[in-house]
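Hi,

I'm pasting everything inline rather than attaching a file, because the server keeps stripping attachments. The sequence lines come first, and each chain or strand is labelled.
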Amino acid sequence: MNEARSLDRRDFLCVVAGCVAATTGSCADVTHTPFFRERLRELTKAELADIVAGMAEDYHARYGKRFEVGAAPAQPGVEFAYALDLSHCVGCRRCVHACVAENNQSRDPEVQWIRVLEVEKGEGLDLAHADPYYDAALVPRAGYTYVPIACQQCRNPPCVKTCPTGATWQEPDGITVIDYDWCIGCRCCISACPYGARHFNWAEPQIPADELNTTTHVLGNRLREKGVVEKCTFCIHRVREGLYPACVEACPTGSRKFGNLLDPSSEIRYVLEHKRAFVLEAELGTRPRFYYFYGD
Amino acid sequence: MPSLWKIRCFVARSAREVTHGGLLYWSWIVALLALVGFGFAAYLEQLDHGLITTSMRDQVSWAFYIGNFTFLVGVAAAAVMLVIPAYVYDWKPIKEVVILGELLAIASLVMCALFVLVDVGRPDRLWHLVPGIGYLNLPSSLLAWDVIVLNGYLALNLCIATYVLYSLFVGGQPRKGIFKLLVLLSIPCAIAIHTVTAFLYNGIPARPFWNSAILAPRFLASAFCSGPAVLLILMQLLRRFTRFEIPDAAIWKIAELMAYAMFVNLFLLGAEVFKEYYSNTEHLIHMRYMFTGLDGQSSIVPYMWFSVVASLIAFVLFLVPATRRNPMTLNLGCVLIWAGVYIEKGMGLVIPGLTPDTLGEIYEYFPSRSEVVISIGIFSVGSLLFTLMVKVATPILLGEFRLRSPSRHFAGTPHPSSGHPFVQSQGSQPQTSTGRVESGRG
Amino acid sequence: MGEGREPTRSVYLLSRVSVSAPAPRTGPRTVAGTLGLLLVAAFVGCDGSPDSPSEGLELAWVETDGPQEGDYLPAPALSLETFPCSDCHDPEIPVNRRVRELKLVHAEIPMRHASSQTWCLDCHDDVDRDQLRLSSGEKVPFEDVLRLCGQCHGSQLRDWRAGVHGLRTGAWNGEKTYLQCVYCHDAHDPAFRPIEPEPPPRAPTRTP
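And the predicted assembly:
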């Protein structure tokens, strides 16, 4: 199926390119350039390896640093889930900045995949009256709770449903990913996301060279360009190597729990079993894999 | 069978037609070209810096461009407004202006495509939307469906308009069977394009302001009452500046139908207002932002009230026969209805749907200078296209613009046009040209 | 705000120290240049529910520098200056078991931990000051302090054992570092104080 598809495109582009292709090399060269290639998810393993090698070289040429662009696939028997302990979150935003550093998010214009909302205690979990811009001298402030929110990796993702080009999809291990070279930047997904989890690069991302994270994944924290959408990928470059996401490790109160839903001994299963976990906007039917609970 | 020579003639003569005109015509064209130039320059700047030159941000990620897009899809759909009564009720006076409606639809659809082009972050990747070489996420993505139906409708209108005008040009008549079929097909297509565009908003539960079943009928109602407003004004202009004969009855009938469409639109608006205010859930914040502002943030409130009041006044003006028949109040009504629906579909639909955003944040959007200049540039492209098409179509419809037949009619003697569905002949006497000859038109 | 209790060592640095490998168990005296010692534990494998909370855990001392600016955690309870306690507390010296507020020595240690129900010798063994005592009288070494904490804070201990209470670093499917209770909670003043948050995000503006 993939083969047939790529042949179609090659045929078409060969016709269009014609003489140019003949003078510059084989038609395959044209279709394997970043501009003309298929969606990442339709590439064969070998093609994908080629593409990421090219990306690493490209980043090296641009930034003078050795980049590692991984393409680790989902491991079988793994479905990631996340649980956040609202009784322990103090709203310190360490997770936000750990995420920004780990995932090469633009500093100017500022892109932050995690947003910590300050909610008045008496109002319940009322997202409509939450404030992400609280600027307290010390947290937690009396009378407020804190709700960090990022991509919920929904089981029924409205963003995947609405994307016109299929540039975003959900991987078998539950992470919703984006092919940054296929996204046309129409922002349907941003409209569709009930959690405000998707972010657009309104301008070319600016990251100080000494803050670049060179360990990247092609579907995760590799460097993006202006005009495409990005979001939390559960640190796909870390979790597929078995590590915790950066936010889990950064949280000083240990409010963030992560693990494999399919492993009965994981801490995430413990949370779902022993704690009263819930999800946000449950009535929308998104069925998030990001749970909130009260540990104490 | 159209021969290559005839087609060449058609194209060449059309080109000559559009390059000949009076002072008013050229002033209009030059002004439009200037605006297009400014818009293009601003767009190049936007390409360079990214969409940060707009005022859109994550919190309000669709705004002026998409608002204009939505409004123009409505205008394109409204061309069918004229087709339905003409063909379903077989009412003669409207048929002659059907083609003008389709030309308006073509211009609107081109503008829609341009608004999408300037809105996406990666216009160089729009080929990803072409089935076959790209990937269209069907059947789940409404934008993918919109791409199909809008292009299909554009193709259909292009076919109809070109076929009809070309047939008239070569001195024949379009075959009624084919023509009727195509035109009747365009009715469900027009309804489809606007329904699919409505579903694009409707199918987003994350935005409760849009997630209302009433959205698609409202879109259709507001499209039907605003689109023809342009044609009403256009037809009066054509009556003034050309020999186009459009009976008052046609204009009044269109205005009357627009009144009924506006009634439906206002009724549906009332239904939405009741549902939100009476149910008084959290979802009310969007409507409150629109009509009264929230937490002191109320930049769009005056526009929304203007839109409602303008629509109400226009409704009354079109409903009451006396004001409908008075050209001044009629045109006032047209302007008000156009303005009212333009705001309702732009500011009044996209912005409140996204404000406050899903996490309760209010970002007060207002179009940036760059967005306004680019949008004016796109409206100018559409106006330019429409002007050129009408410049060619009008003389064809009037019977003045014809291919010279092999039987060597005298230059200056137009073909008799009798019983033609597109040109209302004044009695049986063909109009002699008043100083205008077929060739060498100056 | 705990006066004099400046927080030490950011979590990042400590977690990196512990993830690479658990520090070898060395006596505190042999470690030079360390101001404080914190306990971490690495899970080395055990199936089913353990009999003891620290079963299957390899305990390790982690060295820390003094308090750093912007750090969040409390100063370590143990420092080279005070451990081993038997340096001063000779078992031969008679013990004053009267419940009182200490004024002569250890006066800087605030007792804000169930202070109306407990005092020093409820947790510290009165004879062997290098060990702690459970309510049954059983002595436990400092490394097993979680057994002591778990007497009253059983649900937290169970959650900690499952990895749900407190911070875990490392690999979700491999070696993890469990941070012992006293790593985050000052044993004498366990409540967390409010901390300075990172700056808020920049609100969007129409002009970039």
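The beta strands of chain C are 36-43, 57-64, 78-79, 131-133, 139-141, 168-170, 176-179.

If the labels don't parse on your end, tell me and I'll reformat.
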